[in-house]
Specification:
The protein has 18 helices and eleven strands. The chain has 406 residues and is α+β, with helices and mostly antiparallel strands. The strands form three sheets. A six-stranded mixed beta sheet has the order 2-1-9-3-4-5. The chain has a three-stranded antiparallel beta sheet with strand order 6-8-7.
């Protein structure tokens, strides 16, 4: 490695992208292209970064598979930054195997971390946990340690384990301080600030109360029957009944929770569940069927009794009923939550993360764009969607595959 390449690599490791570019900006040999690509990625020029990294990978010879693997890992991190989640993870897995075979443990650990962060974005929390577990016991460089602890903290927050999340963020802050990378310090500070922002709203007759994540966790651990509109389910103690895939049933239980301890008349339930203000006998018959299904699902948590004018929710054990609502209103709350990180997402990546069809996501984005809540850049295959960061609150409870209590 010549002196300019070495100096450029040291500048990149310290987060000085411009200093790195000054040394290799006019060079087109593969090592310089790779460093230029990483520098451009640090500066936010992601399309140019991917182009340079691909040119570098093609430029390395057959005997330089280690250098090609490093380019693949770097490009995978850029893909993560631009939320390109649709590509196959096989290339990254092959690069990881090459790095481990050549003893490049630092870059191999980075590849593990990229894979774990991708799984977190997709809401595959169990797989992300398994991937992060593989990093335990390894001595990570400060910058990688900070990113790893941030991922551990996010995983803990998605499961509402607040104390482990705080501990992970403290370790991330210490590691970012040792790395002396301003962007890392800013990211950790933003994650710490999210703990103090409202994450949900507790609705009650006559008003609402904003709750932080730790207050939500405490409420879920209480004796109350919690109807959670953030994650579409209800629970008490350690029992949890998800209704995310049963929207009609959740609409019914939410309407019943809003009226508790009173009852709800049948016309109001029909309007909430079936979105019609002019019910007929078919709607009333369907309401009876759906109420029967809801009764069967929540039998261990509550009873739903008929009254003269409708139905009433009666939790077992004389518990109180608490209704949690998202910090932001609207049917597209989860979509807005994903876009709230300030990154530019493709439609396909949003569909993957939400577990929805691209057509469904496109319709939702069109509605949000018409309301001025999101904007797009690029066209056709290069089109990306983003929205302003929602600094007033945290949307962690709205992200895919949030906590599912046993």
């Amino acid at each position: 490695m010549d002196s300019l390449i070495a100096a450029s690599a040291r500048a990149l490791a310290a987060g000085d992208a411009l200093g790195a570019l000054k040394r290799v900006a006019l060079r087109d040999d593969p090592p310089a292209l790779a460093l230029r690509g990483i520098a451009m990625a640090q500066l936010g020029e992601h399309p140019r970064a991917r182009e340079l990294l691909r040119r570098a990978a093609r430029g390395f010879g057959a005997h330089e598979e280690l250098s090609r693997a490093r380019c693949v890992v770097a490009e995978a991190e850029v893909a993560l930054a631009v939320r390109d989640l649709g590509s196959s993870p096989r290339a990254l897995a092959a690069a990881l195997a090459t790095l481990e075979a050549h003893g490049d443990h630092a870059n191999a650990l980075q590849a593990h971390l990229i894979a774990a962060r991708r799984l977190l974005l997709l809401g595959r929390l169990d797989e992300a946990q398994a991937a992060l577990t593989q990093l335990d016991g390894h001595s990570l460089p400060p910058s990688l340690a900070a990113v790893a602890e941030l991922a551990v903290a996010e995983l803990a927050l998605r499961s509402l384990r607040i104390d482990p999340a705080r501990a992970a963020l403290a370790r991330a802050y210490e590691a970012a301080g040792r790395a002396r990378v301003p962007a890392l310090l800013a990211e950790v500070a933003e994650a710490l600030a999210a703990l103090e922002r409202p994450a949900a709203r507790r609705l009650f007759a006559g008003g609402e109360q904003a709750l932080r994540l730790d207050e939500v966790a405490a409420l879920l651990a209480s004796d109350a029957l919690v109807v959670d509109a953030c994650r579409r389910g209800l629970g008490a103690d350690n029992a949890w009944q998800p209704l995310a895939r049963r929207p009609v049933l959740f609409a019914l239980v939410r309407a019943l929770a809003e009226a508790w301890p009173g009852d709800v008349d049948r016309e109001a339930l029909i309007e909430a569940a079936f979105n019609t203000r002019h019910p007929d006998e078919t709607h009333r018959a369907r309401l009876r069927v759906e109420i029967g299904r809801l009764r069967a699902l929540v039998t261990k948590l509550a009873q739903i009794e008929a009254t003269a004018r409708g139905f009433v929710l009666k939790p077992l054990g004389e518990r109180a009923v608490v209704l949690l609502a998202p910090p932001i209103d609207g049917e597209q709350a989860s979509l807005t939550a994903l876009l709230a990180d300030g990154a530019a997402w493709s439609t396909s990546a949003l569909a993957l993360a939400l577990g929805a069809s691209q057509r469904t996501v496109q319709r939702a984005l069109a509605e949000l764009e018409a309301a001025g809540r999101v904007r797009s850049i690029g066209r056709a295959r290069t089109q990306r969607w983003l929205s302003p960061p929602l600094a007033g609150f945290t949307t962690i409870l709205l992200l895919p595959a949030a906590l599912q209590m046993e």
